[in-house]
DNA sequence: GTCTATACCACGATAGAC
DNA sequence: GTCTATCGTGGTATAGAC
């Protein structure tokens, strides 16, 4: 398929998304202007609307893309054969690893929920719930097996996810601890917390 | 001291701060206009500048006020005589209770850090560090006593604070569990997580 | 202490040339 | 596919009357 000379859409679109993600993470959705994003990509503001419907749609696409990647990466991860405790450890390592690799998307997806229109918010929340349900299922299995003892499954899931996601607030590659060391330390705390 | 007729500064100022806090929490600092805040208080936008230097100063004052209240409330709380484990439980209950009572201020103080000017950011970070150090001291004491076993004190502190603060993302008074029940459940997980 | 009025600037989004 | 130009709106902050 012949491409028009000067046509760079396949390059420009991902660059636009990357620039928007970076700027939204750094300064916040509301604080970033379309002109700023355009400058980062090397375009005039008007040209952005070849790729997006409006600013809200851009935010929503970024967040939905992140959540769908999260769910599909989890689905593609190979859970270990073994007891629920092994699967919990697998979840914790997956969560830390996936989130550490996409700090900007994680940040935007947690911080900009209130800037979504109601319909868009509901869609993102539904995706988040599906992910939380994966952890809850593991915790329920652990209790059925008797390898875990939890006062409340839903609260435990929320507590563990908050703890694991919190890694992103301070972890920097090249710091005092490697990502693998951080993983080990958190796995230890997670295993203990579920009463193993 | 005689007050000018029509003078309502002592009433207006706290109302302004409360309105700004509520709106910042709901929609985000960058998304809220001075006109919106003024409408909420029942003034014209220009009148707000009797009480604040500028929008940035307003945000900073709210956040500093929150952090200082947090530190002074913790200082005023009576830690139990007993081992570090008892003090850790005291910290967990204090943290959940204090934060649940000020959801808006907590939200703003965690979400709007990136909208602070560099100098203001450093000041808030310093206050946050002081609070984290309080928990770290308890965890160190527990390890010295031998009642806690932790792979890394600093990480454990960050993990526990993230977990406890996470309560605010889903807890609503009048929901499935009372605040006291939530406290008990989290205390249980915190105690287990430190290897008690 | 609060108002009205306004300076000045930036916003998101669109139209039409190239 | 990107540009220039622009529309209409709303932003923060100040000045000066009351």
Q: Tally the beta strands of chain A.
A: 0
- Weakly predicted, low-confidence segments of chain A: 1-5
N-to-C terminal Cα separation of chain A, in Å? 59 Å
Question: Which two chains form the greatest contact, residue counts included?
Answer: A-B, 35 and 34 residues
In a nutshell, what does this entry contain?
Chain A is an all-alpha fold and 196 residues long.
Account of the protein in words:
- Two copies of one chain form a homodimer.
- With 196 residues, the first copy, chain A, is mainly alpha-helical.
- Chain A has helices at residues 9-27, 34-41, 55-76, 84-100, 103-111, 118-145, 153-165, 167-170, 179-193.
- Chain A has two domains: 1-52, Arc Repressor Mutant, subunit A, CATH 1.10.10; 56-193, Tetracycline Repressor, domain 2, CATH 1.10.357.10.
- Chain A is built from nine helices and no strands.
- The longest helix of chain A is centred in the C-terminal third of the chain and has 28 residues, at 118-145.
- The N and C termini of chain A lie far apart (59 Å).
- Chains A and B meet through helix 7, helix 8 and helix 9 of A and helix 7 and helix 9 of B.
- The first copy, chain A, binds a DNA duplex (18 and 18 nucleotides) through residues 4, 6-9, 12, 33-35, 43-47, 49-50, 54-55.
Give structural attributes.
homodimer; 196 residues; mainly alpha; Arc Repressor Mutant, subunit A; Tetracycline Repressor, domain 2; 2 domains; disordered N terminus; DNA-binding
